[in-house]
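pasting Membrane dipeptidase for the record, 321 residues
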Amino acid sequence: MTVWDAHACLPLHPDASLAPLQAYAAEGVDYVSINVGMDMNPLEQVMAVIAAFRTRIAAEPARYALVHRLAELDAARAAGRLALGFDLEGSLPLLGRPEMVALYSSLGVNQIHFAYNRNNAVAGGCHDEEQGLTPLGRRMVEAVNAAGMLMDCSHTGRRCSLDIMAASAAPVIFSHANPLALVAHGRNVSDAQIRACAATGGVVCISGVSAFLGSAAPNAADVARHAAYVAGLVGVAHVGLGLDIGFSEPGLDDRPPGRFDPGYWWPAAAGYGAALGGIRYTPVQAWGQILPALQAEGFSAADAALVMGGNMRRVAAQVWG
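structre below
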C-alpha cells in the first residue's frame, strides 16, 4: 500500500527545518507534497525556498528523496526514505509565461493550481468574483500537461475549475478540498466539481483543516466521513488525502515581504477570522488512525488502501510516468 499526502505546508522561509517531515515517515507515509509558494509570495521568496528545500533534502539522503517518477518513489520507499515533491499554489510565480512551468518541474514542482483564492490573469479564485479560465490559462494547462505535472484545482473558483477540467488532457486533482455538501465553505467543492474531477480520471483529496471539515478539533474520523461522501458520489477510485497541515517554527517569519494583507487572501467574510486564528489541523499522528476510520465508514481494506494513496499513485502513473 502506498500512503500519499497530497499537500503539506512547511514555513515558506529558506531557513525552515525539514524536521516536521519525520513525523510523516513515523506514521508510514510514503510521499508528501510540500508547498513552496502561493500567489502572494514574490518570485524571490519562492525561488529562495525551493533552493533551500532542495539543498536540505540532498543533505539528508538517508531520510529524504526528491522524486518525479513512481520508480523513484518506490526506490525511496524500499530504502526507508520519505519521498517528497513540491507544489505551487497559484500562477503568479509563473510570471505570465507558460515556459516557466517546465522550469518549475525541473526544480521538483510536481503539481500546481492556478489561483490562490483570488482572481488573476490566468484563473479565477474561490473567494473572488466568478471568472473562467482565461486564454492564457488554457496555454498554461497545456504547459502543465506537457511537463507531466499534476493539474490541481484547489483554491480555484467553481466556474474556472470546470474550465480547467474540460481543458486538461490528463487527470485533474483537488489536492486538498472537501465536499461543499457537508460543510458550506467557499473553499469546499460542489458535487458538480467532484463529478467533473472524477470524469477526468482524477482524485479529490480530503483536507484535514478544521473549517473545511466542520470540526473544531479535526481528527481521522472527520477525514473519513468526508472521504465517504466523495466515494458515495463518484466512487472510491476518486478519493485521496491531502491533510494540508501547516507547520510553524519559532523565530521564523515567513510572511511575504513588503505590503501584505492577509485579510485579502483569507477574507473574514469567508469564514477565516483574524489572522487565521481559528484554523486547526488534523495532526500528523492521525495518519496512523485514518485506515481504521475509513473501515469504520464502511470501506473495505482494499478500498481504504486506494484512498490512503492508491488512487493518487494511479494518477501519478498516468501523469508523471
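The chain has one domain: 4-319.
Strands lie at 4-9, 31-38, 64-66, 82-89, 109-113, 150-152, 172-174, 203-206, 239-241, 245-246.
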